[in-house]
Amino acid sequence: MMQAQLHCLCLLILHLATGYSHEGKFSGPLQPMTFSVFEGQQGSQVIFQFKASPPAMTFKLTGETDGIFQIQPDGLLYHNGALDRETRAVHKLQVSALNAQGATVQGPVPITIEVKDINDNRPTFLQLKYEGSVRQNSRPGKPFMYVNATDLDDPATPNGQLVYEIVIQLPKINNVMYFQINNKTGGISLTRHGALELDPTKNSNYNLVVSVKDMGGQNENSFSDSTSVDIMVKENIWKAPELLEIVENSTDPHPLKITQVQWNEPGAKYSLVDKEKLPRFPFTIDQEGNIYVTQPLDREEKDSYVFYAVAKDENGELLSIPLQIGVKVKDINDNPPTCPSAVTVFEVQENENIGSNIGTLTAHDRDEENTASTVLAYKIVDQIPAFPKEGLFLVQAYTGVFQLAKQSLKKQDTPQYNLTVQVSDKDFNTLCQVEIHVIDINDQIPIFEKSDYGNLTLAEDTAVGSTILTIQATDADEPLTGSSKILYRITQGDSEGRLGIDTDPQTNAGYVIIKKPLDFETVAVHNLVFQAENPEPLVHGVNYNSSSSATFKLIVTNVNEAPQFTQNIYQAKVREDVAIGTKVGNVTAKDPENLDISYSLKNNKRGWLKIDPVTGEIFTMAPMDREAESVYRVQVVATEVGGSSLSSVATFHLALSDVNDNPPRLATDHPHLFLCHPLQAPGSVIFEATDDDQQFFRGPRFTFSLGSKVLENDWEVKRINGSHAKLSTKHTNFEERVYSVPIHISDGGEPELKGTVSLPVTFCKCVEGSCFRPAGHQSGMPTVGMAVGILLTTFLVIGIILAVVFIRIKKNEGKDNVEIAQACEAQPLRN
Ligand SMILES: *[C@@H]1O[C@H](CO)[C@@H](O)[C@H](O)[C@H]1NC(C)=O
Ligand SMILES: *[C@@H]1O[C@H](CO)[C@@H](O)[C@H](O)[C@H]1NC(C)=O
Ligand SMILES: *[C@@H]1O[C@H](CO)[C@@H](O)[C@H](O)[C@H]1NC(C)=O
Ligand SMILES: *[C@@H]1O[C@H](CO)[C@@H](O)[C@H](O)[C@H]1NC(C)=O
Ligand SMILES: *[C@@H]1O[C@H](CO)[C@@H](O)[C@H](O)[C@H]1NC(C)=O
Ligand SMILES: *[C@@H]1O[C@H](CO)[C@@H](O)[C@H](O)[C@H]1NC(C)=O
Ligand SMILES: *[C@@H]1O[C@H](CO)[C@@H](O)[C@H](O)[C@H]1NC(C)=O
Ligand SMILES: *[C@@H]1O[C@H](CO)[C@@H](O)[C@H](O)[C@H]1NC(C)=O
């Protein structure tokens, strides 16, 4: 029986402990060896045949045989029962060789049997049921609990490699998984959805069925187990506190606890993050999550803060999203009102009425707006001098508006009052200084130093901007006020506004300036009247009189001026082929001094034109070419005859228009026009003509006619529009060939040009609406017809293919040739 089982050696994997190759050999001398044997095999299994060498006769086995391993006296090592790796993974055996007398002659030699794993154990969860809890909004992927299964098989082989999986999640809404499991560790965590959506107020209890499989989950023969996991979702206590209010300028000892944050589990590491990157960040957090302000805040420096509280685990990883903490700094009244400036100045005119508004004092307060800390009250506490009496002014308590309280003021009494004004907020008083200047009223008119500035003679070409005269009036009102400032106007003698007057604000001197060119020819003498006025109105009862005006005579002298053309640019248009000597235009210039004028041309580069020096008429003097110069530009010069010979220049543009010098022709050189032969009814083709002259403004205007009277019996031409015409047959009796039909085309141009074209019309058999005609029909020179023939060959090839199809279809009827012709005729005529 042992011998019979030798074939089972194939189940053994042999390897030699001593290192020399023994593979494939199942017998050999006694020496230290290691064998690997799969567990779980029933019956007797041969491991090795030891060969005895004299004096050794028999073998003996000792060690961890567990009653399973045995050796026969002849050296055959085997086991007679199933091994179990989970009971003993390695059996250490010793084999000794004995002589005939039973004495050991070799050994004991160590023989190691490694039991190889087979997947003979199921994975088992350590618990039938697991319970865990998770906080709302926990970080996805961070395990909050573990399930754990064991498998007795060798974890170094797939047999012991376990894979966890969530099989069922209850409840599961919209097929969204809130939980995930690490398939190696069994760690259960939230998914991203779970972190966002789990809400204990909606549903706090979830149940999972988790499975575990061995064989790495990859083998369909793997064993599995499953367990139930109950998960309770708990409220997240990692929550941002409400907006905090901290009173500024606090005198409490700092640091001062202002709020607290807390991670869901103990052991979190807390820190604060200042995203505003403040130079001075006045908050800290301790490891209990208490948040402190480290120093008094100042609302006027910064009225709110936003920062983040962060919780991390021991590895420095964020436990959850940081919490945003907002702090509003609450105002206290810690700022006194401030005056708008060291001294505020108001002006009051003499004689202003009681109640007149003098001005407004606006003090500021840095404390929070629209609070009691910034409601300011004004009060006058002192008036210097108290003359003619106290309390001349009042201020509206909350607006700061100053008014005259008791009487009109007189500058003679006091030109300036100094007021001390108290401005108060809830807790602070500030004193502001206000000066009130009493200013004169406009009761004095400006008086010219003289009533006549005499006369001045100027050339008409005196430069614009020149100051030609300085005038002066004085005003006795208070200097540097609108009552004494003087504005000068010219009331007579300058209706065209050629002059203007600027006033020096310090001295009230007026400078008469030329604003537009003087012109002897228009106005030779300006009799000017100047009027001096104040910007402020005069008081009632005082009026400007003649002392506020002055006269001046400006005499403009003539200057010889150049002739003036009536236009800067003259334009004309002629046909390019006009005869030499044709008048193409004229120019006209006038001399302001009425001198005679002589005309000439400049830049007459091509010498095409000449000008009559007396009349200004312009003539051609050479053939012109539009293609060389479509617009010919010359300058015309007008020169005074005699005198200073002043001249001026204008431009003459002569546009040359195109001449119709191309006859009409066909738009396509070889129009592919055909009619299907034989004609069933009279047919027609459409063709298009063109012209190389580009002189049409509204498209071509061709007319068409037959080129030969003889053909009028066969053909007819009708115009469709300016470019297209229709050629129709008058009967159906045409041969199967190309007809060349002469057509007259006239372009209706100027002059009218006519062309005669030969229009090729092919009569051919048709297939599928295309011409079907054998090539080489026409012999001799390559002609238009040839080209058509070659073109038609293409159709022929296609036609033959179609014909063959037809022939095959119609074969049985025995009328092949006729059928092709019928197919052709069956096509409807084009047009
Ligand atoms: C699972 O259980 C085994 C045996 O009790 C233990 O050695 C192992 O650490 C456990 N694994 C986890 C993730 O708890
Ligand atoms: C286990 O999870 C890892 C990563 O999550 C994945 O790559 C692997 O395919 C999973 N194994 C099985 C058997 O599902
Ligand atoms: C704090 O208040 C006191 C008066 O109460 C004031 O003098 C001081 O300037 C204030 N400090 C700040 C920073 O506002
Ligand atoms: C008012 O104050 C100014 C300084 O601001 C001073 O020069 C002037 O003398 C004062 N006038 C009176 C009447 O005190
Ligand atoms: C210009 O003024 C002078 C005196 O300054 C006088 O003799 C002369 O007649 C005046 N000319 C005219 C045109 O008024
Ligand atoms: C114009 O009025 C002023 C006073 O306002 C006076 O001095 C002057 O004589 C008057 N001039 C004439 C011409 O009446
Ligand atoms: C000059 O041309 C104008 C039109 O521009 C015409 O009215 C006038 O009669 C022409 N003069 C001569 C002398 O041809
Ligand atoms: C002239 O008639 C032809 C044929 O009807 C057409 O294709 C073409 O557009 C027409 N041209 C104009 C300018 O109407």
UniProtKB/TrEMBL annotation:
| GO-annotated biological processes | adherens junction organization; calcium-dependent cell-cell adhesion via plasma membrane cell adhesion molecules; cell migration; cell morphogenesis; cell-cell adhesion mediated by cadherin; cell-cell junction assembly; germinal center B cell differentiation; homophilic cell adhesion via plasma membrane adhesion molecules
Pfam families recorded: Cadherin
Keyword vocabulary terms for this entry: Calcium, Cell adhesion, Cell membrane, Glycoprotein, Membrane, Metal-binding, Repeat, Signal, Transmembrane, Transmembrane helix
Its transmembrane ranges are: 784-807
Query: A GO CC term?
Result: nucleoplasm
UniProt xrefs under SUPFAM superfamilies? Cadherin-like (SSF49313)
Q: Answer yes or no on keyword DNA-binding.
A: no
- Main subcellular localisation: membrane
Report the subcellular localization: Cell membrane
Give this protein's Gene Ontology molecular function annotations.
beta-catenin binding; cadherin binding; calcium ion binding; integrin binding; proton-dependent oligopeptide secondary active transmembrane transporter activity
Per UniProt, what is the membrane topology? Single-pass type I membrane protein
Residues forming the Cadherin domain are 57-125, 126-339, 340-448, 450-565, 566-666
The residues forming the signal peptide are 1-19
Record bears the keyword Repeat: yes
**Name of the protein:** Cadherin-17
Organism field: Canis lupus dingo
What's the source species' lineage? Eukaryota, Metazoa, Chordata, Craniata, Vertebrata
The gene name on file is CDH17
